Amino acid sequence: MSDGAEARARVLRVIAAGRRVEDPRDPLGVEARARLPETTGLHPKGVELALGAHLETSPTDAEIDALLARTGVAPRCHVVLSANVCTAPLRALALAVATSSDVVVRPSRRDPVVAELLVRALSEDESFAATNHVTLTSTLAPSPGDELHVYGADATIATIARGLPAGVLVRGHGTGFGIAIVGAGASLPEAAEAITRDVVPFDQRGCLSPRVVLVAGGQRRAEAFVDVLDQVLSSADASVPRGPLDPALAAEITMYGASMEAVGLFLAGPSHAVGLDPDPRALVLPPAARVVHVVALAPEDVPRLLDPWVTYLTAVGLDDDDEILARAVLERAPFARRSPLGAMQRPPLDGPVDLRPSRA
After folding, report:
1. What is the pLDDT of residues 8-17, one digit of tens each?
2. In the chain, which ranges are continuous DSSP H helix?
3. Where is this region: Disordered (predicted)?
4. pTM
5. Which phi and psi (to 5°) does residue 252 adopt?
6. Which of the 8 DSSP states describes residue 242?
7. Does the domain formed by 177-340 have CATH 3.40.1160.10?
8. How do residues 200-246 score in pLDDT, each as one tens digit?
9. Superfamily of domain 3-173, CATH level 4
10. What are phi and psi of 151, to 5 degrees?
């Protein structure tokens, strides 16, 4: 078997392990659903949504080809995981085993569950374990020639990279957030439904989660969209409640709400909030807790508003990438992952979700 075929086979075994975690009848799926509400802070229905709809367990052959094309080759691959998105270890492990047959994973201390379960599944997979090694660790010890994949805040990546020996290739996937665009021709109810599907998973914590919505067509259209989005998010609250808020995050939401009430509009439900800045001087990034910041924006104002944030822009959701506002945003963020509204949290398994240059 060629090296490329072996790498593909390893990726497929990771995907098979993910299907066990996805399956509510498999012992690993049962354990995941029992443990994740505590480690993630998600409501049990939020955990079920994450595992049942957002594990990338059905990639196409073309997606796997793209994933393999975006990875290197190394004698060993080390992975440092973060805790924001509980399903992220599957993609991280797929990229790691595409790189090497010898993988060492340091899970998040706050949420190690899915990483632990995937590694356990691979250890129980006799065809995989016979020639490949995926192990958990609490320490990092990469050697020259190894790759290190780090997922987390930019500061974390920088700190880890400074302590490494020369010759270790670091692929850093750092701080980021998503923006959704409601173009001039978009149906407001359809856009609100789609954006809600992007906001609710993981309670908006991931780098693909839209935290800002840019609305074309002026202030009145943005106000109308806020009303519709608030109604749709309220319906989602009932079916998939937000997890509990810690005091610090609750205080952030209160402060954000006060600032929006001072300049525009703020609507809050039991598990969400929507703020409107009708005439922004600067772009405000709201707390990541199903809090959506809506801005009425003309295309000519995109550079002024986005440039301070563009290096952190991981994902753009849009209904028409040829619409004038969308084109203005995409010109400022050429490396952001583009997705249709409603599909921002379901990217193809074609490589890292973060397509920006490495943060290391």
Report:
1. 999 999 999 9
2. 3-22, 27-40, 44-53, 61-69, 88-99, 113-124, 126-129, 154-162, 188-199, 219-239, 247-263, 302-306, 324-332
3. 341-360
4. 0.95
5. -60, -40
6. P
7. no
8. 999 999 999 999 999 999 999 999 999 999 999 999 999 999 999 99
9. Aldehyde Dehydrogenase; Chain A, domain 1 (3.40.605.10)
10. -115, 125
